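Example for tutorial group B:
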């Protein structure tokens, strides 16, 4: 179906109300959708994908830490969108969230999950099937963690959330074309205590043809903190090569690297893209930055320090002679000289459940402070505002505000 992006009048509902508790220490002060990957909040990729595809009227469903979303996007004008905010007092489930948008909707509309990284092709593939209800599906090597979609031909028969027995590797991406008739089914399912869209769609599919759309576009979902590294690497694939700030003599730069305004890169530093450096960063002499790494605003990297495949959020500071690999450091983290956050396989505890992760370094929450010579075992979760004395070894889960001697 040919589309004229300029002619699209559909509204899009972006689900952005939840906290994202499974993100561990990184949602202490921001909602999950505002965690930065590629130096942009995750939900910004959805907004840009919609605008690119001609969908500019956006209803943003907000709740937890909603002011962080509103202050960043405001009315959407700077992003080419028209954003209306609908605040939820209570998050019961995705169907309940969509139900809150009913007074602002007419005709068919899109629903997207604000915590998935998507591109314009993904939205475009959904719009190509916008003349009837539809859901975007993808193949996954982790179907047991998602809603597995059962098909009859090209139509959805049902969606089973986190099934005990996996009969298919086709999963629900949480991207839909819906029409107003779904609200009757949302209300019926709510009476039975079901407030999630997959349950509603499974019931709706008994009487309505729901097309399963297999998109070739980008869709990367963030469920756990280590998923942020996959999102970050994906976001950096479309990175622009920009050189701003001060780059001293003797600096080596290979590949696509964005260097923000006011950055200073000291002599002898080695940068291998894709890399994104936000404004105001300082990279010390002979430091090494390797793919796929994003540094937020005003990040400080000491001399002789190596960072690889990691996210360091705004105002993070890593001292000299440190190694940080496959790690996520929240905003305001300070690690003094000789931090060792090496990478390897680990069983990581999130929300009381252990997850086997193939390759992971440290997950350090905002405003934590680590002394000199601290080592962090693979898969360690350091919650926000923790403190570690010089020479400490961190492992397992360090509670918020804890002091490790």
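The residue assignment follows.
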């Amino acid at each position: 179906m040919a589309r004229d992006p300029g002619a699209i009048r559909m509204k899009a509902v972006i689900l952005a109300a939840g906290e994202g508790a499974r993100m561990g220490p990184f949602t202490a002060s921001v909602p999950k959708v505002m965690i930065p990957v590629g130096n942009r909040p995750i939900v910004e990729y959805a907004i840009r994908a919609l605008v690119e595809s001609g969908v500019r009227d956006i209803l943003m469903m907000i709740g937890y830490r909603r002011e962080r979303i509103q202050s960043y996007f405001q009315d959407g004008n700077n992003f080419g969108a028209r954003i209306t905010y609908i605040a939820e007092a209570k998050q019961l489930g995705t169907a309940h969230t969509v139900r809150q948008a009913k007074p602002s909707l007419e005709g068919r509309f899109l629903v997207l999950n604000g915590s998935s990284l998507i591109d314009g092709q993904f939205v475009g593939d959904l719009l190509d099937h916008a003349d009837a209800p539809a859901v975007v599906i993808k193949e996954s090597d982790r179907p047991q963690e998602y809603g597995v979609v059962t098909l009859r031909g090209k139509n959805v028969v049902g969606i089973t959330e986190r099934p005990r027995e996996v009969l298919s590797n086709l999963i629900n991406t949480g991207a839909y074309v819906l029409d107003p008739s779904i609200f009757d089914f949302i209300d019926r399912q709510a009476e039975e205590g079901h407030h999630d869209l997959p349950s509603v769609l499974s019931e709706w599919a008994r009487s309505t043809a729901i097309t399963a759309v297999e998109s070739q576009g980008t869709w990367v979902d963030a469920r756990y903190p280590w998923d942020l590294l996959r999102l970050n690497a994906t976001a950096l694939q479309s990175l622009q090569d920009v050189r701003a700030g001060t780059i001293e003599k003797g600096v080596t730069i290979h590949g696509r690297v964005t260097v923000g305004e006011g950055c200073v890169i000291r002599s002898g530093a080695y940068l291998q893209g894709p890399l994104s450096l936000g404004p105001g960063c300082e990279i010390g002499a002979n430091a090494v930055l390797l793919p796929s790494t994003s540094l937020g605003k005003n990040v400080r990297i000491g001399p002789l320090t190596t960072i690889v495949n990691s996210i360091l959020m705004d105002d993070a500071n890593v001292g000299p002679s440190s190694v940080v690999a496959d790690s996520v450091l929240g905003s305001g983290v300070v690690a003094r000289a000789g931090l060792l956050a090496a990478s390897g396989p680990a069983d990581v505890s999130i929300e009381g459940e252990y997850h086997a992760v193939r390759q992971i370094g440290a997950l350090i929450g905002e405003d934590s402070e680590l002394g000199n010579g601290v080592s962090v075992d693979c898969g360690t979760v350091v919650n926000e505002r923790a403190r570690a004395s010089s020479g400490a070894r961190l492992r397992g889960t360090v509670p918020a505000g804890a002091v490790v001697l």
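Residues 1-7 have pLDDT under 50 and may be disordered. Compare this with the pattern of hydrophobic and polar residues in the output above.
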